[in-house]
Structures are given as C-alpha cells and as structure tokens.
Amino acid sequence: MMIPILLSNNTGYIFAPPASNSWALLNLMLVIIGIFLALLALIDSIGEKRRVRRKRIEFKNRGAKDTDLTGDGRNPLLSKLDWLITAEFLGCVSVLVFLLTQNINSFMVLINWMSIAHIVIFIVEVIALRLVYKPVKTGSK
Questions:
Q1: DSSP state, 134?
Q2: Is residue 13 part of a domain?
Q3: 6-65 per-position pLDDT tens digit
C-alpha cells in the first residue's frame, strides 16, 4: 500500500512498497551528500599531506629527526588513510547502489525499501569520515 500525499494539485507518494517500480528522493540526497563529503575529505587530505611534507622539510632543514615531528616516530596520516579510503570506497558504493536499484524513469517517492541500505551506507561513511578527523593523541600530556 502506498501512502499518498498531496503535492501541488497532484497526488505524490511518500513511501512505496518493495515490489513497486519507483525511485526515492532520500536515496538521491544521501548519495549526493555522501559524494560531496567524500570529495571534501579527499581534497583536505591532499592539503594535509602537503602541510606535513612542508613541516617535515622545515624540521630536516633545522637538523631535527622525524620523531620530533610526530612525537613517537609514526606517521599520523597512516591510520587516517585507512578511514579515508573506506569513506571514498563507500561514496563510490553508494553511487553504484543507487544506479543499480533506482529507476529514474519511474515515479518518485520520498523513501522506499532501498532507503535502508542507503542510510546504512551513509552512516558508515560518516563514521569513517569522523575517524579521519579524530585528533591524533600524542604521548605527552
């Protein structure tokens, strides 16, 4: 059973049953927001890599060791890189899932059963991006 809603003198639908041939506006919005966040994170990580490289060059020019840069000798971008790759991968997966499951030629609803998958993908992507921007803890207090 579809739940109708009146939209500017036409009857539209909020929710469509699983067997209906429709596409959901919420899914499209989640895909666009997810791709936008993933691209912003990618651009920011490229800028961060350049900042770290410049800082490392400045430290080496002063005669400091690499351990002076991070405090414990490990690269702070290494763990962030894994989460960034996860977020970028999930952004691509969300587009692929949208293209494979949503029929743009049919009628539009606000949400459908595939919205659950898109919501889960978006939440995991946001968690991965949150872990990318989690502050790096150093050994000193």
A1: S
A2: no
A3: 444 455 567 766 667 778 889 999 999 999 999 998 888 888 777 777 777 777 777 655
Which residues face 107 on adjacent strands? 22
Per-residue tokens: 111:
């949400």
For residue 63, what are its two tokens?
């005669």
Structural domain contains residue 4: no
User: Rounded to whole angstroms, how far apart are CA atoms 37 and 31?
Assistant: 10
Tokens of 12: 């539209």
Structural domain includes residue 83: yes
- Amino acid present at 123: I
Full residue range of the structural domain in which residue 116 is found: 24-132
Classify residue 91 by burial, with Cβ atoms within 10 Å: 0-12, 13-18, 19+: buried
39 vs 36: CA distance, rounded Å: 5
Q: Which residues pair with 6 in a beta bridge?
A: 11
Q: Determine the Cα–Cα distance for residues 52 and 28; give it in Å rounded to an integer.
A: 36
Tell me the two tokens of residue 140: 């000193």
